[in-house]
Amino acid sequence: MDSYLKTQILIVSCVNIGQFIDGYSVGWSAPIIPKLQDPEQTPLPELITELQVSWIGSLLYVGAIVGPYIPSYLSNIVGRKPCLFLGGLLNLTAIILIVTTRNVAMVYAIRIISGLGMGMVTVSNLVYVGEIASTNIRGILLTSTSIIGILGTLAAYSIGPFVSYAATGYIALVINLIHVVGILFIPESPVYYAIKGKQTEAKETLRFLGRVDDLDNVFESVWGTNPDEGHSWKAWIKIFTVKANRWSLFITLSLCTLQQLSGVAAVLFFATTIFQTAGSSIRPDLATIIIGVTRLVASLIAPTVVERAGRRILLLVSTAFCALSLSILGTFFYLSRVKSPVVAEIGWLPLMALIMYFFSYEIGFGTMPSALVGEMFRGNARSTGSAVAMTTAWLIGFGVATGFGSMVRVFGGDVTFWMFAFSCIVAFVFTLKFVPETKGKTLNEIQEILGSQ
């Protein structure tokens, strides 16, 4: 392997430790809530109520919706690297609160601060990785951020049930310290230097990355950018007035919205019940581990084929099979609702459909939208555009997850899953009609394609 590619992979590995912590934060509440309801394990003076349980789950999203706008504002002022560092410090603060928890208000603070850190780190990672990676491995490195996040969630699922409340914090503390220290040694993004008109620094960074031939492309990608407007209202106006940015926002926002409307958050929440409905004797904590392993194995497929098959084909295959698996789930619940005698013979079907769904989702629909967010926007609008797309997705995901119980009560499980399947069908058609192939293209070439649509 080229030594420069090894350098890029090493840098992204360091950055992705933050993504691991984000995934860990997402999965942390699942094994922790039972501990807070157990008088022998809780660090709190009183056991938490059902209302407090719902707040512990949802407050992460509150922070995550706000978090991306911090790098959106700061990344063009102080740089991408300081934003990565600040996100790491926010995660570190939340982890210290885990270790020192004394009351439920501190648990609420953990979730909000973790959400802020998650929002900052996720958007900063996508922007930074998209800007430092060589064209031939950019897709692989961008999809790796999603994979490492899934690995972090799986770690929380796998470790959390078997260690103490405080130990879940100490484990994360060690990992996050490595991340924060590592960020100090990575280079600043060459695109940030180009925005600031610092040609010498941009050239030196590109030389370090083995991309010195891309100097002209990097400067062309931010051509016409005022170095001081990235944090002003003008940056927001450019999202809507520059045609390439407008198309980037339309494509990424639509994909991220449809991704959440496919019900992934709700399906994750409902996974244990699906296992029980299938007649499985697997314990709920082991069921979540199986789901986590399925997601991880499937997500590992995406980077191996993304630079061969391309983004569009992975999205098309993934959304098609997601629609099929969710339709099967809906059909099973319909047969169960009408008390069909065949249900007793196909108790295995929900489990099969659920595994098929997560496998299909992670090979494309779960990873490609975030990868496209990291490579579609112009340099001066990348942070702002990424923030809008990601926060909208999280807001919709929050709404779908919290409204899932009501949907099942009002429409029934069958109609609910068919609605999720329909969102996947819409995503398939949308990809076919609007999503351009970005495989093997420089960031500047992607802008030219979007500007000509």
UniProtKB/TrEMBL annotation:
Family, as annotated: Belongs to the major facilitator superfamily. Sugar transporter (TC 2.A.1.1) family.
Keywords: Glycoprotein, Membrane, Transmembrane, Transmembrane helix, Transport
Keyword Iron-sulfur (UniProt): no
Source domain of life: Eukaryota
Stored InterPro entries: MFS_dom, MFS_sugar_transport-like, MFS_trans_sf, MFS_Trehalose_Transporter, Sugar/inositol_transpt, Sugar_transporter_CS
Alphabetized Gene3D superfamilies for the sequence: MFS general substrate transporter like domains
Signal peptide: none
Topology with respect to the bilayer: Multi-pass membrane protein
Domain Major facilitator superfamily (MFS) profile: 11-439
RNA-binding found in the keyword field: no
Organism encoding this protein: Iphiclides podalirius
Membrane-spanning segments: 53-71, 83-100, 106-128, 140-159, 165-186, 247-274, 286-306, 313-335, 347-366, 387-411, 417-435
Record's subcellular location: Membrane
Record-given protein name: Major facilitator superfamily (MFS) profile domain-containing protein
